[in-house]
Design a protein that fits this description.
By secondary structure, chain A is α/β, with parallel strands linked by helices. Chain A has nine helices and ten strands. In chain A, strand 9 and strand 10 form a beta hairpin. In chain A, helix 4 packs parallel to helix 7 and helix 7 packs parallel to helix 8. Classes of the chains: A alpha/beta, B alpha/beta. At the A-B interface, helix 7, helix 8 and helix 9 of A face helix 11 of B.
Chain lengths: 244, 322
Protein backbone atom coordinates (compact mmCIF):
# COMPACT_ATOMS: atom_id res chain seq x y z
CA UNK A 1 0.00 0.00 0.00
CA UNK A 2 1.17 3.51 -0.70
CA UNK A 3 1.75 5.54 2.39
CA UNK A 4 -0.46 8.60 2.25
CA UNK A 5 1.97 11.48 2.48
CA UNK A 6 -0.35 14.24 3.61
CA UNK A 7 -1.27 12.54 6.91
CA UNK A 8 1.24 10.47 8.87
CA UNK A 9 0.09 6.88 9.24
CA UNK A 10 -1.61 6.57 12.57
CA UNK A 11 -1.35 2.81 12.84
CA UNK A 12 1.55 0.88 11.45
CA UNK A 13 1.89 -2.89 11.65
CA UNK A 14 5.19 -4.45 10.55
CA UNK A 15 5.89 -8.14 10.06
CA UNK A 16 3.20 -9.31 12.48
CA UNK A 17 3.21 -13.03 13.14
CA UNK A 18 1.29 -15.09 15.65
CA UNK A 19 1.87 -18.76 16.26
CA UNK A 20 -0.37 -20.79 18.55
CA UNK A 21 0.85 -23.94 20.24
CA UNK A 22 -1.88 -26.46 20.62
CA UNK A 23 -2.32 -30.11 21.39
CA UNK A 24 -3.14 -32.42 18.55
CA UNK A 25 -5.98 -33.94 20.56
CA UNK A 26 -7.31 -33.84 24.07
CA UNK A 27 -5.16 -36.72 25.28
CA UNK A 28 -2.01 -36.38 23.23
CA UNK A 29 1.07 -34.72 24.60
CA UNK A 30 2.41 -33.85 21.21
CA UNK A 31 2.16 -30.14 20.57
CA UNK A 32 1.68 -28.67 17.16
CA UNK A 33 2.25 -25.15 15.91
CA UNK A 34 -0.51 -23.26 14.13
CA UNK A 35 0.75 -20.27 12.17
CA UNK A 36 -2.37 -18.09 12.39
CA UNK A 37 -0.72 -14.93 11.10
CA UNK A 38 2.43 -15.04 8.99
CA UNK A 39 3.98 -11.65 8.38
CA UNK A 40 1.29 -9.02 8.01
CA UNK A 41 2.10 -5.37 7.21
CA UNK A 42 -0.55 -2.67 7.48
CA UNK A 43 -0.62 1.12 7.35
CA UNK A 44 -3.78 2.87 8.42
CA UNK A 45 -4.03 6.69 8.38
CA UNK A 46 -5.97 8.27 11.25
CA UNK A 47 -9.66 8.77 10.53
CA UNK A 48 -9.78 6.06 7.88
CA UNK A 49 -11.52 2.72 7.79
CA UNK A 50 -9.74 -0.49 6.93
CA UNK A 51 -11.76 -3.63 6.28
CA UNK A 52 -10.10 -7.00 6.73
CA UNK A 53 -12.07 -9.66 4.91
CA UNK A 54 -11.45 -13.36 4.56
CA UNK A 55 -12.94 -16.78 5.24
CA UNK A 56 -13.18 -18.18 8.76
CA UNK A 57 -9.73 -19.21 9.96
CA UNK A 58 -7.85 -16.82 7.68
CA UNK A 59 -6.31 -15.01 10.65
CA UNK A 60 -8.25 -11.75 10.47
CA UNK A 61 -9.46 -11.84 14.05
CA UNK A 62 -5.97 -12.74 15.31
CA UNK A 63 -4.55 -9.63 13.62
CA UNK A 64 -7.25 -7.52 15.25
CA UNK A 65 -6.66 -9.07 18.66
CA UNK A 66 -2.93 -8.39 18.43
CA UNK A 67 -3.56 -4.75 17.54
CA UNK A 68 -5.97 -4.40 20.46
CA UNK A 69 -3.41 -5.89 22.83
CA UNK A 70 -5.61 -8.87 23.65
CA UNK A 71 -2.95 -11.19 22.23
CA UNK A 72 0.80 -10.89 22.41
CA UNK A 73 2.23 -11.19 18.89
CA UNK A 74 4.92 -13.86 18.37
CA UNK A 75 6.95 -11.31 16.47
CA UNK A 76 6.47 -8.01 14.68
CA UNK A 77 5.88 -4.39 15.55
CA UNK A 78 2.66 -2.44 16.08
CA UNK A 79 3.08 1.32 16.20
CA UNK A 80 0.38 3.86 16.88
CA UNK A 81 1.23 7.53 16.29
CA UNK A 82 4.92 6.80 16.76
CA UNK A 83 4.59 4.71 19.93
CA UNK A 84 4.93 0.97 20.16
CA UNK A 85 1.78 -0.72 21.35
CA UNK A 86 3.53 -4.03 21.92
CA UNK A 87 6.20 -2.89 24.35
CA UNK A 88 4.24 -0.17 26.16
CA UNK A 89 1.19 -2.36 26.69
CA UNK A 90 -1.13 0.63 26.57
CA UNK A 91 -3.21 -0.55 23.66
CA UNK A 92 -6.48 -0.48 25.58
CA UNK A 93 -6.33 3.30 25.94
CA UNK A 94 -6.27 3.80 22.21
CA UNK A 95 -7.73 0.64 20.71
CA UNK A 96 -11.08 -0.84 21.71
CA UNK A 97 -13.07 -3.79 20.50
CA UNK A 98 -16.76 -4.02 19.66
CA UNK A 99 -17.43 -7.74 19.62
CA UNK A 100 -19.66 -9.90 17.52
CA UNK A 101 -23.17 -9.78 18.98
CA UNK A 102 -22.59 -6.58 20.99
CA UNK A 103 -25.59 -7.37 23.19
CA UNK A 104 -24.03 -10.58 24.49
CA UNK A 105 -20.94 -8.75 25.72
CA UNK A 106 -22.96 -6.71 28.20
CA UNK A 107 -23.63 -7.94 31.73
CA UNK A 108 -27.44 -8.27 31.93
CA UNK A 109 -27.46 -7.36 35.64
CA UNK A 110 -25.63 -4.08 35.16
CA UNK A 111 -27.42 -0.83 34.68
CA UNK A 112 -26.50 1.10 31.56
CA UNK A 113 -24.52 3.59 33.65
CA UNK A 114 -22.58 0.77 35.37
CA UNK A 115 -21.78 -0.79 32.02
CA UNK A 116 -20.33 2.51 30.83
CA UNK A 117 -18.32 3.12 33.99
CA UNK A 118 -16.91 -0.40 34.31
CA UNK A 119 -13.99 0.04 31.88
CA UNK A 120 -12.99 3.26 33.66
CA UNK A 121 -13.06 1.52 37.03
CA UNK A 122 -10.93 -1.24 35.58
CA UNK A 123 -8.11 1.14 34.65
CA UNK A 124 -8.43 2.94 38.01
CA UNK A 125 -8.10 6.38 36.52
CA UNK A 126 -9.79 8.76 38.94
CA UNK A 127 -9.07 11.76 36.75
CA UNK A 128 -10.81 10.19 33.78
CA UNK A 129 -13.62 8.97 36.00
CA UNK A 130 -14.26 12.47 37.32
CA UNK A 131 -14.31 13.95 33.84
CA UNK A 132 -16.63 11.29 32.49
CA UNK A 133 -20.27 12.09 31.87
CA UNK A 134 -22.72 9.24 31.40
CA UNK A 135 -25.28 11.51 29.78
CA UNK A 136 -22.76 12.74 27.25
CA UNK A 137 -21.62 9.21 26.43
CA UNK A 138 -25.20 8.12 25.88
CA UNK A 139 -26.02 11.10 23.77
CA UNK A 140 -22.99 10.49 21.59
CA UNK A 141 -24.26 7.00 20.82
CA UNK A 142 -27.75 8.25 20.12
CA UNK A 143 -29.30 6.89 23.32
CA UNK A 144 -31.72 8.91 25.47
CA UNK A 145 -30.35 9.90 28.90
CA UNK A 146 -33.33 8.15 30.51
CA UNK A 147 -31.88 4.69 29.81
CA UNK A 148 -28.97 5.26 32.22
CA UNK A 149 -30.75 3.61 35.14
CA UNK A 150 -32.25 0.69 33.19
CA UNK A 151 -30.69 -2.77 33.22
CA UNK A 152 -28.83 -3.62 30.04
CA UNK A 153 -31.07 -6.68 29.66
CA UNK A 154 -34.06 -4.37 29.29
CA UNK A 155 -32.67 -2.66 26.21
CA UNK A 156 -33.71 -3.55 22.68
CA UNK A 157 -31.19 -5.12 20.30
CA UNK A 158 -30.48 -1.79 18.65
CA UNK A 159 -29.98 -0.02 21.98
CA UNK A 160 -27.57 -2.73 23.17
CA UNK A 161 -25.52 -2.28 20.00
CA UNK A 162 -25.37 1.47 20.60
CA UNK A 163 -24.38 0.90 24.23
CA UNK A 164 -21.54 -1.41 23.16
CA UNK A 165 -20.15 1.40 21.00
CA UNK A 166 -20.65 3.96 23.78
CA UNK A 167 -18.78 1.72 26.20
CA UNK A 168 -15.89 1.18 23.80
CA UNK A 169 -15.62 4.95 23.36
CA UNK A 170 -15.75 5.50 27.13
CA UNK A 171 -12.79 3.17 27.57
CA UNK A 172 -10.67 5.15 25.11
CA UNK A 173 -8.42 7.94 26.27
CA UNK A 174 -10.03 11.11 24.90
CA UNK A 175 -6.64 12.60 24.13
CA UNK A 176 -4.68 10.84 21.45
CA UNK A 177 -5.55 8.51 18.62
CA UNK A 178 -8.63 6.31 18.83
CA UNK A 179 -9.20 3.06 16.98
CA UNK A 180 -12.35 0.97 17.17
CA UNK A 181 -12.13 -2.63 16.02
CA UNK A 182 -15.49 -3.90 14.83
CA UNK A 183 -15.10 -7.67 14.82
CA UNK A 184 -18.10 -8.95 12.87
CA UNK A 185 -20.08 -6.66 15.12
CA UNK A 186 -22.40 -5.63 12.30
CA UNK A 187 -22.84 -8.97 10.61
CA UNK A 188 -25.41 -10.74 12.74
CA UNK A 189 -27.57 -7.68 13.24
CA UNK A 190 -31.01 -7.13 11.86
CA UNK A 191 -30.92 -4.93 8.80
CA UNK A 192 -32.71 -1.97 10.32
CA UNK A 193 -30.48 -2.08 13.42
CA UNK A 194 -27.39 -2.42 11.25
CA UNK A 195 -28.39 0.59 9.16
CA UNK A 196 -28.77 2.66 12.34
CA UNK A 197 -25.35 1.44 13.51
CA UNK A 198 -23.70 2.26 10.20
CA UNK A 199 -25.11 5.79 10.42
CA UNK A 200 -23.87 6.14 14.01
CA UNK A 201 -20.37 4.92 13.12
CA UNK A 202 -20.17 7.22 10.10
CA UNK A 203 -21.28 10.20 12.21
CA UNK A 204 -18.77 9.40 14.96
CA UNK A 205 -15.98 9.07 12.44
CA UNK A 206 -16.83 12.40 10.86
CA UNK A 207 -17.17 14.17 14.22
CA UNK A 208 -14.34 12.60 16.21
CA UNK A 209 -11.96 11.41 13.54
CA UNK A 210 -12.13 7.81 14.75
CA UNK A 211 -10.21 5.12 12.93
CA UNK A 212 -12.04 1.85 12.26
CA UNK A 213 -10.82 -1.65 11.58
CA UNK A 214 -13.75 -3.65 10.30
CA UNK A 215 -13.41 -7.42 10.42
CA UNK A 216 -16.05 -8.99 8.24
CA UNK A 217 -16.85 -11.63 5.68
CA UNK A 218 -19.48 -9.43 4.05
CA UNK A 219 -17.98 -7.93 0.90
CA UNK A 220 -20.80 -5.43 0.40
CA UNK A 221 -20.43 -4.12 3.95
CA UNK A 222 -16.65 -3.78 3.48
CA UNK A 223 -17.16 -1.90 0.22
CA UNK A 224 -19.70 0.41 1.81
CA UNK A 225 -17.65 1.34 4.86
CA UNK A 226 -13.96 1.03 4.04
CA UNK A 227 -11.36 3.29 2.45
CA UNK A 228 -9.21 0.24 1.95
CA UNK A 229 -9.92 -3.48 1.96
CA UNK A 230 -7.34 -6.14 2.81
CA UNK A 231 -8.17 -9.74 1.92
CA UNK A 232 -6.60 -12.37 4.18
CA UNK A 233 -6.11 -16.05 3.50
CA UNK A 234 -4.08 -18.53 5.52
CA UNK A 235 -2.47 -15.89 7.67
CA UNK A 236 -1.28 -13.49 5.00
CA UNK A 237 -2.77 -10.55 3.14
CA UNK A 238 -3.31 -11.76 -0.41
CA UNK A 239 -4.89 -8.69 -1.90
CA UNK A 240 -5.51 -5.09 -0.93
CA UNK A 241 -6.93 -1.95 -2.45
CA UNK A 242 -9.77 0.56 -2.25
CA UNK A 243 -12.04 -2.17 -3.59
CA UNK A 244 -11.48 -5.84 -4.25
CA UNK B 1 -50.90 -28.27 0.85
CA UNK B 2 -50.74 -26.14 3.98
CA UNK B 3 -53.49 -23.64 4.66
CA UNK B 4 -53.14 -21.46 7.72
CA UNK B 5 -56.17 -19.50 8.80
CA UNK B 6 -56.16 -16.76 11.41
CA UNK B 7 -53.37 -18.39 13.41
CA UNK B 8 -52.37 -16.63 16.61
CA UNK B 9 -49.83 -17.37 19.32
CA UNK B 10 -50.04 -15.67 22.70
CA UNK B 11 -47.48 -16.13 25.45
CA UNK B 12 -48.71 -15.85 28.99
CA UNK B 13 -46.09 -13.95 30.93
CA UNK B 14 -47.13 -13.29 34.48
CA UNK B 15 -50.27 -11.22 34.41
CA UNK B 16 -49.89 -9.94 30.88
CA UNK B 17 -50.47 -11.70 27.59
CA UNK B 18 -47.96 -11.23 24.81
CA UNK B 19 -49.53 -11.67 21.38
CA UNK B 20 -46.42 -12.81 19.50
CA UNK B 21 -48.20 -13.79 16.31
CA UNK B 22 -51.60 -12.52 15.24
CA UNK B 23 -54.13 -13.16 12.48
CA UNK B 24 -51.78 -15.11 10.27
CA UNK B 25 -53.42 -16.49 7.15
CA UNK B 26 -51.43 -17.96 4.30
CA UNK B 27 -51.08 -20.96 2.07
CA UNK B 28 -48.11 -22.98 0.93
CA UNK B 29 -48.51 -24.84 -2.34
CA UNK B 30 -46.69 -28.01 -3.36
CA UNK B 31 -43.18 -27.50 -4.67
CA UNK B 32 -43.00 -23.85 -3.71
CA UNK B 33 -40.30 -21.95 -1.79
CA UNK B 34 -41.92 -19.40 0.50
CA UNK B 35 -39.77 -16.92 2.38
CA UNK B 36 -40.85 -15.57 5.76
CA UNK B 37 -38.92 -12.33 6.15
CA UNK B 38 -38.74 -10.40 9.39
CA UNK B 39 -36.36 -9.05 12.00
CA UNK B 40 -35.57 -10.62 15.37
CA UNK B 41 -38.63 -10.59 17.55
CA UNK B 42 -41.11 -10.29 14.70
CA UNK B 43 -42.57 -13.72 15.48
CA UNK B 44 -41.16 -15.78 12.59
CA UNK B 45 -39.75 -18.67 14.61
CA UNK B 46 -42.76 -18.70 16.92
CA UNK B 47 -45.01 -19.06 13.89
CA UNK B 48 -43.02 -22.01 12.57
CA UNK B 49 -42.88 -23.77 15.93
CA UNK B 50 -46.56 -23.00 16.44
CA UNK B 51 -47.44 -24.84 13.22
CA UNK B 52 -45.65 -27.90 14.57
CA UNK B 53 -47.12 -27.36 18.05
CA UNK B 54 -43.64 -27.32 19.54
CA UNK B 55 -44.09 -24.24 21.69
CA UNK B 56 -43.76 -24.23 25.49
CA UNK B 57 -46.81 -24.66 27.70
CA UNK B 58 -47.02 -20.92 28.29
CA UNK B 59 -48.01 -20.37 24.65
CA UNK B 60 -51.67 -20.41 23.68
CA UNK B 61 -52.52 -21.17 20.05
CA UNK B 62 -55.65 -20.26 18.20
CA UNK B 63 -56.84 -20.46 14.61
CA UNK B 64 -56.47 -23.25 12.08
CA UNK B 65 -53.67 -24.88 10.15
CA UNK B 66 -54.66 -27.61 7.73
CA UNK B 67 -51.88 -29.79 6.35
CA UNK B 68 -52.90 -32.34 3.70
CA UNK B 69 -56.32 -32.79 5.23
CA UNK B 70 -55.14 -32.90 8.86
CA UNK B 71 -56.08 -30.06 11.18
CA UNK B 72 -52.79 -29.57 13.03
CA UNK B 73 -54.22 -27.44 15.81
CA UNK B 74 -56.60 -30.21 16.87
CA UNK B 75 -54.44 -33.23 16.04
CA UNK B 76 -53.46 -35.69 18.76
CA UNK B 77 -49.87 -35.89 19.94
CA UNK B 78 -49.52 -39.28 18.23
CA UNK B 79 -50.64 -37.85 14.88
CA UNK B 80 -48.30 -34.90 15.32
CA UNK B 81 -45.38 -37.20 16.03
CA UNK B 82 -46.02 -39.01 12.78
CA UNK B 83 -46.09 -35.71 10.91
CA UNK B 84 -43.14 -33.95 12.54
CA UNK B 85 -39.83 -34.90 11.01
CA UNK B 86 -41.45 -37.17 8.44
CA UNK B 87 -43.98 -35.03 6.58
CA UNK B 88 -43.12 -31.59 7.91
CA UNK B 89 -39.51 -31.29 8.95
CA UNK B 90 -37.71 -28.47 10.66
CA UNK B 91 -34.15 -27.24 10.18
CA UNK B 92 -33.35 -25.35 13.38
CA UNK B 93 -31.27 -22.23 13.76
CA UNK B 94 -28.24 -23.27 15.76
CA UNK B 95 -26.47 -26.31 14.31
CA UNK B 96 -24.19 -26.76 17.29
CA UNK B 97 -27.03 -26.63 19.82
CA UNK B 98 -29.29 -28.87 17.79
CA UNK B 99 -26.93 -31.77 17.38
CA UNK B 100 -25.94 -34.17 20.13
CA UNK B 101 -22.23 -33.58 20.80
CA UNK B 102 -21.49 -37.19 21.82
CA UNK B 103 -23.16 -39.09 18.97
CA UNK B 104 -21.63 -39.57 15.51
CA UNK B 105 -23.52 -37.61 12.87
CA UNK B 106 -24.50 -40.68 10.85
CA UNK B 107 -26.23 -42.13 13.92
CA UNK B 108 -28.06 -38.87 14.50
CA UNK B 109 -29.42 -38.96 10.95
CA UNK B 110 -30.33 -42.64 11.12
CA UNK B 111 -32.17 -42.04 14.41
CA UNK B 112 -34.65 -39.90 12.46
CA UNK B 113 -35.29 -42.79 10.04
CA UNK B 114 -35.69 -45.21 12.92
CA UNK B 115 -38.27 -42.98 14.58
CA UNK B 116 -40.47 -42.94 11.51
CA UNK B 117 -40.03 -46.33 9.84
CA UNK B 118 -39.78 -50.00 10.77
CA UNK B 119 -36.46 -50.48 8.99
CA UNK B 120 -33.63 -52.38 10.68
CA UNK B 121 -30.65 -50.59 12.12
CA UNK B 122 -28.52 -51.44 9.10
CA UNK B 123 -31.13 -50.17 6.66
CA UNK B 124 -31.52 -46.94 8.63
CA UNK B 125 -27.77 -46.36 8.47
CA UNK B 126 -27.78 -47.05 4.77
CA UNK B 127 -30.47 -44.43 4.23
CA UNK B 128 -28.57 -42.02 6.45
CA UNK B 129 -25.37 -42.62 4.48
CA UNK B 130 -27.15 -42.00 1.17
CA UNK B 131 -28.71 -38.77 2.34
CA UNK B 132 -25.45 -37.48 3.85
CA UNK B 133 -23.85 -38.05 0.46
CA UNK B 134 -26.72 -36.18 -1.15
CA UNK B 135 -26.01 -33.12 1.02
CA UNK B 136 -22.33 -33.24 0.09
CA UNK B 137 -20.80 -35.07 3.07
CA UNK B 138 -19.38 -37.89 1.06
CA UNK B 139 -16.65 -39.61 3.02
CA UNK B 140 -16.83 -42.29 5.67
CA UNK B 141 -14.64 -40.08 7.87
CA UNK B 142 -17.23 -37.27 7.80
CA UNK B 143 -20.07 -39.69 8.52
CA UNK B 144 -18.25 -41.01 11.56
CA UNK B 145 -17.39 -37.54 12.87
CA UNK B 146 -18.82 -35.92 15.95
CA UNK B 147 -20.47 -32.52 15.44
CA UNK B 148 -17.53 -30.57 16.94
CA UNK B 149 -15.18 -32.04 14.33
CA UNK B 150 -17.17 -30.48 11.50
CA UNK B 151 -17.21 -26.92 10.19
CA UNK B 152 -20.30 -24.73 10.51
CA UNK B 153 -21.32 -25.40 6.94
CA UNK B 154 -20.90 -29.15 7.38
CA UNK B 155 -22.99 -29.14 10.57
CA UNK B 156 -25.71 -27.27 8.71
CA UNK B 157 -25.60 -29.99 6.06
CA UNK B 158 -26.14 -32.64 8.74
CA UNK B 159 -29.28 -30.83 9.93
CA UNK B 160 -30.52 -30.64 6.35
CA UNK B 161 -29.85 -34.36 5.94
CA UNK B 162 -31.95 -35.03 9.05
CA UNK B 163 -34.72 -32.88 7.65
CA UNK B 164 -34.95 -34.57 4.25
CA UNK B 165 -34.10 -38.19 5.10
CA UNK B 166 -37.79 -39.14 5.47
CA UNK B 167 -38.73 -37.35 2.23
CA UNK B 168 -41.08 -34.77 3.79
CA UNK B 169 -43.50 -32.71 1.75
CA UNK B 170 -42.74 -29.52 3.68
CA UNK B 171 -39.39 -28.39 5.04
CA UNK B 172 -39.30 -25.42 7.40
CA UNK B 173 -35.80 -23.96 7.62
CA UNK B 174 -35.12 -21.33 10.30
CA UNK B 175 -32.18 -19.08 9.34
CA UNK B 176 -30.30 -22.03 7.82
CA UNK B 177 -27.35 -19.83 6.90
CA UNK B 178 -27.31 -17.64 9.99
CA UNK B 179 -23.86 -18.59 11.24
CA UNK B 180 -22.13 -19.15 7.91
CA UNK B 181 -19.77 -17.05 5.81
CA UNK B 182 -20.77 -15.83 2.38
CA UNK B 183 -19.37 -18.76 0.43
CA UNK B 184 -20.93 -21.52 2.52
CA UNK B 185 -24.16 -19.52 2.63
CA UNK B 186 -24.49 -19.61 -1.13
CA UNK B 187 -23.66 -23.32 -1.24
CA UNK B 188 -26.29 -24.18 1.40
CA UNK B 189 -28.98 -22.17 -0.41
CA UNK B 190 -28.26 -23.86 -3.72
CA UNK B 191 -28.32 -27.23 -1.96
CA UNK B 192 -31.65 -26.54 -0.22
CA UNK B 193 -33.32 -25.41 -3.41
CA UNK B 194 -32.09 -28.39 -5.41
CA UNK B 195 -33.10 -30.86 -2.68
CA UNK B 196 -36.65 -29.57 -2.37
CA UNK B 197 -36.92 -29.57 -6.16
CA UNK B 198 -35.75 -33.19 -6.29
CA UNK B 199 -38.20 -34.23 -3.56
CA UNK B 200 -41.01 -32.14 -4.97
CA UNK B 201 -41.31 -30.71 -1.46
CA UNK B 202 -42.18 -27.19 -0.40
CA UNK B 203 -39.82 -25.06 1.60
CA UNK B 204 -40.68 -22.37 4.11
CA UNK B 205 -37.52 -20.36 4.62
CA UNK B 206 -37.33 -18.09 7.65
CA UNK B 207 -34.77 -15.32 7.50
CA UNK B 208 -34.03 -11.71 8.33
CA UNK B 209 -32.00 -11.21 5.17
CA UNK B 210 -33.82 -10.30 1.94
CA UNK B 211 -30.75 -11.26 -0.10
CA UNK B 212 -31.24 -14.90 0.82
CA UNK B 213 -34.80 -14.83 -0.44
CA UNK B 214 -33.79 -13.02 -3.62
CA UNK B 215 -31.66 -16.07 -4.38
CA UNK B 216 -34.22 -18.85 -3.92
CA UNK B 217 -37.78 -17.87 -2.95
CA UNK B 218 -40.86 -18.00 -5.16
CA UNK B 219 -43.03 -16.02 -2.77
CA UNK B 220 -42.18 -13.73 0.14
CA UNK B 221 -44.18 -12.90 3.26
CA UNK B 222 -42.96 -10.01 5.40
CA UNK B 223 -43.64 -10.12 9.14
CA UNK B 224 -43.60 -7.19 11.53
CA UNK B 225 -44.59 -7.33 15.22
CA UNK B 226 -46.35 -10.66 14.82
CA UNK B 227 -48.33 -9.83 11.69
CA UNK B 228 -47.82 -10.46 8.01
CA UNK B 229 -47.74 -6.94 6.61
CA UNK B 230 -47.03 -7.76 2.98
CA UNK B 231 -46.93 -10.86 0.84
CA UNK B 232 -46.66 -11.62 -2.83
CA UNK B 233 -44.41 -13.00 -5.52
CA UNK B 234 -40.70 -12.60 -4.85
CA UNK B 235 -40.05 -10.17 -7.68
CA UNK B 236 -42.95 -7.96 -6.61
CA UNK B 237 -42.21 -7.84 -2.91
CA UNK B 238 -38.44 -7.52 -3.17
CA UNK B 239 -38.22 -5.28 -6.21
CA UNK B 240 -41.38 -3.20 -5.93
CA UNK B 241 -42.33 -3.31 -2.24
CA UNK B 242 -45.48 -1.45 -1.23
CA UNK B 243 -45.66 -1.54 2.56
CA UNK B 244 -43.63 1.28 4.17
CA UNK B 245 -41.86 -1.25 6.42
CA UNK B 246 -40.79 -3.46 3.53
CA UNK B 247 -39.63 -0.42 1.61
CA UNK B 248 -37.60 0.82 4.60
CA UNK B 249 -36.13 -2.60 5.27
CA UNK B 250 -35.01 -3.09 1.68
CA UNK B 251 -33.32 0.32 1.68
CA UNK B 252 -31.09 -0.99 4.47
CA UNK B 253 -29.69 -3.69 2.18
CA UNK B 254 -26.22 -2.81 0.95
CA UNK B 255 -25.79 -3.17 -2.78
CA UNK B 256 -23.32 -5.62 -4.16
CA UNK B 257 -19.96 -3.90 -4.59
CA UNK B 258 -19.43 -2.90 -8.18
CA UNK B 259 -15.81 -1.92 -7.88
CA UNK B 260 -16.53 1.73 -7.14
CA UNK B 261 -15.17 1.76 -3.59
CA UNK B 262 -17.14 3.31 -0.76
CA UNK B 263 -19.96 5.69 -1.58
CA UNK B 264 -19.43 9.39 -0.89
CA UNK B 265 -22.24 9.47 1.65
CA UNK B 266 -22.26 6.29 3.67
CA UNK B 267 -25.45 7.16 5.56
CA UNK B 268 -28.38 4.83 4.95
CA UNK B 269 -32.06 5.71 5.01
CA UNK B 270 -32.56 3.76 8.24
CA UNK B 271 -35.87 2.99 9.92
CA UNK B 272 -35.53 4.81 13.23
CA UNK B 273 -36.61 3.33 16.54
CA UNK B 274 -37.22 -0.31 17.32
CA UNK B 275 -39.90 -2.98 17.34
CA UNK B 276 -42.75 -2.32 19.78
CA UNK B 277 -42.90 -4.42 22.95
CA UNK B 278 -45.35 -7.26 22.51
CA UNK B 279 -46.85 -6.32 25.86
CA UNK B 280 -47.76 -2.84 24.69
CA UNK B 281 -48.58 -2.97 21.02
CA UNK B 282 -50.44 0.24 20.19
CA UNK B 283 -54.07 -0.10 19.15
CA UNK B 284 -53.45 1.06 15.59
CA UNK B 285 -50.91 -0.18 13.06
CA UNK B 286 -47.86 -1.56 14.93
CA UNK B 287 -45.51 0.16 12.47
CA UNK B 288 -47.17 3.58 12.83
CA UNK B 289 -44.63 5.09 15.31
CA UNK B 290 -41.74 4.44 12.88
CA UNK B 291 -43.60 5.08 9.63
CA UNK B 292 -42.80 8.03 7.37
CA UNK B 293 -46.10 7.73 5.51
CA UNK B 294 -48.47 7.54 8.46
CA UNK B 295 -52.05 8.75 8.08
CA UNK B 296 -54.24 10.02 10.92
CA UNK B 297 -56.27 6.80 10.85
CA UNK B 298 -53.19 4.59 11.42
CA UNK B 299 -53.24 5.30 15.15
CA UNK B 300 -56.86 4.32 15.60
CA UNK B 301 -57.35 1.03 13.85
CA UNK B 302 -55.20 -1.81 12.70
CA UNK B 303 -55.24 -2.19 8.91
CA UNK B 304 -56.48 -5.51 7.55
CA UNK B 305 -54.81 -7.03 4.51
CA UNK B 306 -56.04 -5.71 1.17
CA UNK B 307 -55.13 -6.83 -2.30
CA UNK B 308 -53.09 -4.49 -4.44
CA UNK B 309 -52.41 -6.18 -7.75
CA UNK B 310 -51.42 -9.64 -6.62
CA UNK B 311 -49.74 -8.40 -3.42
CA UNK B 312 -51.47 -8.52 -0.06
CA UNK B 313 -50.78 -5.41 2.00
CA UNK B 314 -51.87 -4.53 5.51
CA UNK B 315 -51.60 -0.75 5.20
CA UNK B 316 -54.18 2.03 4.90
CA UNK B 317 -52.18 3.66 2.11
CA UNK B 318 -53.56 0.97 -0.15
CA UNK B 319 -57.17 1.29 0.95
CA UNK B 320 -59.39 -0.34 3.50
CA UNK B 321 -61.14 -3.63 3.39
CA UNK B 322 -64.83 -2.97 2.66
Amino acid sequence: MDVVNSAPPSLSVRGLTKTYHTQRSLLSRKRIEVHAVRGVDLELPAGNTLAIVGASGSGKSTVARCIAGLLQPTSGEIWLAGRSLVSEGAAHRHVQFVFQDPGASLNPRFTVADALLEPLMAVRSSSRLSRFSVAEALQQAGLPATVATRLTSQLSGGQKARLAVARALAALDASGPAILILDESLSSMDLSVRAQMINLLVDLQERRGLTYILITHDASLAAHMADEIAVMAEGVIVKRGPHV
Amino acid sequence: MLRVDDLGVTYRAGKSDLPVARNLSFEIYPGEVVGLLGESGSGKTTTALGLLKLLPMSAALKGHARFRGVELMEASEATLQRIRGAQISFVPQEPLLSLNPVIRVIDQVSAVVRAHTRLTGGECRQKARAVLEQVGLDTERLHRSYPHQLSGGQRQRVLIAQAIVCRPSLVIADEPTGSLDAESEQAILVLLRSLVDQLGASLMLITHDPRILAAIADRVMVMYAGKIVESGRRAEVLEAPLHPYTRGLLQCVLDKPEGGGKPRDRHLPAIEGGLPDFGEIPPGCPFEPRCHDRLPCCREAEPAAVLSGSQQIACFLYGRRQ
